[in-house]
Amino acid sequence: MTTTHAVGEDTVDLAPAADDTVWARVKWAVLDCGTVVRQELNHVFRQPSTFAWQLGFPIMMVLMFVYVFGSAMDVTGKGAGVDYLEFAIPGLFTLTMAFGFMNTAFSVALMKEKGFIDRFRSMPMASSAVVTGRGVADLLHAALDLLILATIALVLGWRTGGGLTNTLAAFGLLLWLRLALIFVGIYLGLLVKNTEVAGNLFALAFPFVMISSVFAPPDFMPGWLGAIAAWNPVSSTAAAIRELFQSPEVASGYWIEQHAVAAALLWPAAILALFLPLAVQRYRRLGQ
Amino acid sequence: MTGFDVLTQPRQVRRRIGLTGQHPAVDEVISARQNLIMFGRLFHIGRAAARRRADELLEQFGLAAVADQSPKHFSGGMRRRLDLAASMILAPEVLFLDEPTTGLDPAGRREVWQAIEGLAARGTTVLLTTHYLDEADKLCDRIAVIDRGRNLVEDTPAGLKRRIGSERLEILAAEPADLPHIADVMGKVATDRHPPTVDESSLTVTVAVTDGVRALTDVATQLKALGISVADLGVRRPTLDEAFLQLTRPTDHNPGESMP
């Protein structure tokens, strides 16, 4: 390696493409988003172990619930352990989507910590690409997560009873929840001081995800807790996809559970309406 | 900024500046080349051009041999050079560097210095902040000393040093008992007859002089006449450290406040 840096003439034409018309700006917003997404996907290819570790947690949870606690669970009233796999697998899909915002928050906090966001802000790139690129990359990541988890579920003996359209609709609802939570993740990632704090968000995320119908029906919980669990957005998605997968019926005494598909559409919309502007505003106010 | 208004023409400005922060902002997972191509694309140069530019910069910054490794395995100096390369993609007219050598070993600092000198030689205006005054002395044409947010003084390195008096005559005594005699002799050659600074623990006597060589010979002759032998004697230029400490010395308005 040389230690002196030869100073030659640039051979590359460095005149950047014109990007001042509205059309050019839209075009570059899309292209920049694609560049950020490609960077994120390269991470998965170059560091598959990280990706595998992130999946380890939900897999461990489902094995624990199905085989350790599941034998004592009677969710359908047909006896302990009966149909619990059918109940828990949709819960596992939902849990993975719900905890996903932690990965988003951590990535954003890391980008901030490493000075990446400062560098992006000093560049002529479309500023929206930081957010949209993150969003698209995380959605692709989530889709890959679901594909792997569904394969594992099939191996364990889980089956969907809903046919192709309903099954695809169920996965659509899962990604819809994940999309809404991406903006919660971006907002929190920009809000926290560093990655250490971002890691501690788990303490916040855990009750938010677990006080829900992911692993147990809210009807079995004490009244007040059951109400919180039933109205949790995570529960709405879990209940809706159980409906679409035609999982065995479980007792559901709460009004919102009887309108689960509508709730699973509306809750993420409400989260988006709140956190999309918050995340954008937070990004704009960085460095002020 | 480079002929454009920062507030109304932010994109034009962004195309003409480069920024490297305190920590190298490079992706640690993807390779050095992938990093530069990614930044090139985000600077809106075409795909093929971004590729060629990446290779060119890797060559220029001495990273061609490790182009396909990820910065995770790099030394601090190499990572910083990749960081500099990333901010040089559009060959900016102005480059902002925030403490570029903080935390680097001497070899790494030297590598980064050479890279910065190369950029400056090419016509890039480099604005760098640093706590290392030898770094400022080595790299900068003009230095602004900023203390508690106030721009105290702006000058060339030589000019800053001139402000605290020209050269210094320094004598290292052989015996503690000789110190008062040496100080006496030196006081006579001092600029404006300033009394010399005597440091009894290190046995040194220092004084600012106007004509270094002449003061040196005068003092040597007189000491010889007095029969005093010294361990070392010499003329040296003031350091930027001395200039800095003098400039930022607490005034009566805010006594005792420490340096930022």
Give an overview in words.
The complex is a heterodimer of chains A (288) and B (260). With 288 residues, chain A is mainly α. The relative contact order of chain A is 0.13. The N terminus of chain A is likely disordered. With 260 residues, chain B is of the alpha/beta class. In chain B, the strands form 3 sheets. Chain B has a 4-stranded antiparallel β-sheet with strand order 7-8-6-9, with helices on one face. In chain B, strand 7 and strand 8 form a beta hairpin. In chain B, helix 7 packs across helix 10. The chains are: A mainly alpha (288), B alpha/beta (260). Chains A and B meet through helix 1 and helix 4 of A and helix 1, strand 1, helix 2, helix 3 and helix 5 of B.
Structural class of chain A: mainly alpha
Overall pLDDT score of chain A: 84
Principal-axes geometry of chain A comes out as: elongated
Proportion in helices of chain A: over 70%
Strand order of the largest sheet of chain B: 7-8-6-9
Stretches with pLDDT under 50, minimum 5 residues of chain B: 251-260
Note the beta-strand portion of chain A: under 5%
Oligomeric grouping of the chains = heterodimer
Q: Topology as H/E string of chain A?
A: HHHHHHHHHHHH
Percent strand of chain B equals: 15-25%
Tally of separate helices of chain B: 10
- Give the integer mean of the pLDDT values of chain B: 80
Identify the most extensive interface between protein chains. A-B, 40 and 51 residues
User: For the report, how would you describe the main beta sheet of chain B?
Assistant: 4 strands, antiparallel
Inertia-based shape of chain B: elongated
Structural class of chain B: alpha/beta
Helix content of chain B: 40-55%
